[in-house]
Design a protein that fits this description.
Helices cover 39% and strands 31% of the residues. It contains three helices and six strands. It has a six-stranded mixed beta sheet with strand order 1-2-3-4-5-6, with helices on one face. Strand 3, helix 1 and strand 4 form a beta-alpha-beta unit.
């Protein structure tokens, strides 16, 4: 299985998923023209990782901005991981946010309320 790397730009997230370490990183801003299309390779990669590798995962969010459709897609990613979770430490979710950005923190808190995964909020 290959790593998944997507170079971010003004409208899309930088994606770096490393098979060997189980670390998934999403960073930047996300307001692509078609969020579902942008996130499809991420869903596919996660499905393959779950079925072929089956190790624990650490998902690090380092977000600047999310539009509504991207927030929905992030929820979909977390729902996949929620179903994959085997115990409390199997799937780790870290939500990094600038200390002075209450909006990104609030988005993370709202997402965390709707999922059955522990989310650690880490100010930067």
């Amino acid at each position: 299985m290959d790593n998944l790397k997507i170079v971010g730009d003004k409208y899309t997230l930088e994606i770096d998923f490393d098979v060997a370490t189980g670390v998934l990183r999403m960073a930047g801003s996300s307001y692509p023209e078609n969020a579902a299309e942008f996130f499809q390779p991420i869903y596919n990669w996660l499905g393959t990782y779950i079925s072929e590798v089956g190790k624990s995962l650490c998902l690090n969010f380092e977000l600047d901005y999310l539009n509504t459709s991207s927030t929905k897609c992030i929820m979909d990613v977390l729902e996949i991981l929620e179903m994959y979770q085997k115990d409390d430490d199997f799937v780790e979710v870290n939500w990094y946010y600038p200390e002075d950005d209450e909006d990104i923190l609030e988005i993370g808190e709202e997402i965390a309320e709707d999922i059955d995964l522990k989310v650690k909020f880490i100010p930067q």
